[in-house]
């Protein structure tokens, strides 16, 4: 997907941007999305209060190109956070 990935500490944070971020796609039920919203601290009634915000975006490459998927965007400032090179969190963890 398009965006940038940042090292938030023990997890990554996706933000808007013109880079490419690599990820995995899973099929989930509406109940799973509700649980994930709680884990990601999404407050559906108040985006500003949410740590992450869930939105649908288009996959830009790979076998699922042009499909819409749910992503969680980091909803805080990234000032002072380290950007993850090449938008690849798994590689970042291996090389850190």
Protein model, in words:
- The chain has helices spanning 30-39, 89-95; strands at 2-7, 12-20, 52-58, 68-74, 82-83.
- By secondary structure, it is of the alpha+beta class.
- It has a 3-stranded antiparallel beta sheet, with no helix packed on it. Strands 3-4 form a two-stranded antiparallel ribbon.
- 16% of the residues are buried.
Helix content: 10-25%
State the order of secondary-structure elements, H for helix, E for strand: EEHEEEH
Q: Strand order, main sheet: write it out.
A: 2-1-5
Q: Total helix count?
A: 2
Mean pLDDT level = 96
Flag low-confidence runs.
none
Biggest β-sheet description: 3 strands, antiparallel
- State the separation between the terminal residues, measured CA to CA: 23 Å
User: What's the shape?
Assistant: globular
Structural class, from secondary structure content?
A: alpha+beta
Percent of residues in β-strands: 25-35%
Q: What is the CA-based Rg, rounded? A: 13 Å
Count all strands and give the number: 5
Task: Produce a short descriptive summary.
This protein is α+β, with helices and mostly antiparallel strands. It has helices at 30-39, 89-95, and strands spanning 2-7, 12-20, 52-58, 68-74, 82-83.
Topology:
Layout: E1 2-7, E2 12-20, H1 30-39, E3 52-58, E4 68-74, E5 82-83, H2 89-95
Antiparallel strand pairs: 1-2, 1-5, 3-4
Keywords:
96 residues; alpha+beta; single chain; 3-stranded antiparallel beta sheet; globular; two-stranded antiparallel ribbon
């Amino acid at each position: 997907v398009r965006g940038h990935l940042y090292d938030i500490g023990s997890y990554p944070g996706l933000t808007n941007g013109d880079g490419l971020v690599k990820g995995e796609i899973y099929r989930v039920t509406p109940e799973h999305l509700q649980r994930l919203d709680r884990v990601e601290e999404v407050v559906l009634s108040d985006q500003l209060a949410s740590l992450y915000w869930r939105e649908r975006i288009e996959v830009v490459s790979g076998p699922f190109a042009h499909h819409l998927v749910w992503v969680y965007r980091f909803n805080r400032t990234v000032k002072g956070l380290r950007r993850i090179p090449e938008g690849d969190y798994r590689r970042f963890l291996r090389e850190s």
